[in-house]
Amino acid sequence: MAGDALTPLVLTLKVAVLATLLAAFAGVACARALGRRRSFARDVGESLLTLPLVLPPTVLGYYLLVLLGRRGPIGAWLDAHFGVRLIFTWQGAVLAAAIAAFPLILRASRAAFLAVDAELENAARTLGLGEGAVFLRVTLPLAWRGVLAGALLAFARALGEFGATLMVAGNLPGRTQTLSLAIYDAVMAGDDARAETLVLVSLGVAIVVLVLAARLLQGNARAA
């Protein structure tokens, strides 16, 4: 029974790790681009970027299908120029999970950057550092706990992604079937023993990730 959980577990971890890396890169970049100053335009932009967090997963999956399908603008372009097809592939699962997890790291990173003392950044600028150097040498080192906590939450979200992954990548055992999809399959087949094993594996991984994120956030609060 443990062997039945190994294949979807390995695939889930691969998808979650790659999705977290994509979400972290995009989330940190967007959080930095939003800056410190509040404005109506930036509030609207942040709200739009946060939409994947509140949209039903099936709605998110539908829009991804529209964009990434063979007739979609992005899917048709990738197919025509690179021969790449993301629908019903594990790479498609990575993209779906990354988009679903992206708002978590965006919001965590933005909060961490806003918590950094602006005077320290200004002092670095007076010493001749450019904006990129200020971010890499001052802002990011001071905000790393919040960013990493956001990445861990994004990883946990990617681990449990179901709806968007099902619509974009399908439920192909050994190819695109993640833990959450394997649990669904086992329940639908009436295989309670397999479902319980998969649930326990998924629960154990999620608890470890959430405990690590909580400890990082507590450390960040003490440091502040």
Task: Describe the 3D structure.
The protein has 10 helices and no strands. It is globular. The protein has a single domain (2-223), classed as MetI-like (MetI-like fold, Orthogonal Bundle), CATH 1.10.3720.10. With 224 residues, it is mostly helical.
Describe the secondary structure blueprint for this structure:
Blueprint: H1 2-34, H2 40-54, H3 57-68, H4 73-82, H5 90-115, H6 118-126, H7 131-159, H8 163-169, H9 179-188, H10 192-223
- How many discrete domains? 1
Helix content: over 70%
Beta-strand level of the residues, as a percent range? under 5%
The N- and C-terminal alpha carbons lie at a distance of: 47 Å
Mean pLDDT: 88
Characteristic key phrases:
224 residues, mainly alpha, MetI-like fold
Give a short summary of the structure.
The protein is an all-alpha fold. It is 82% helix and 0% strand.
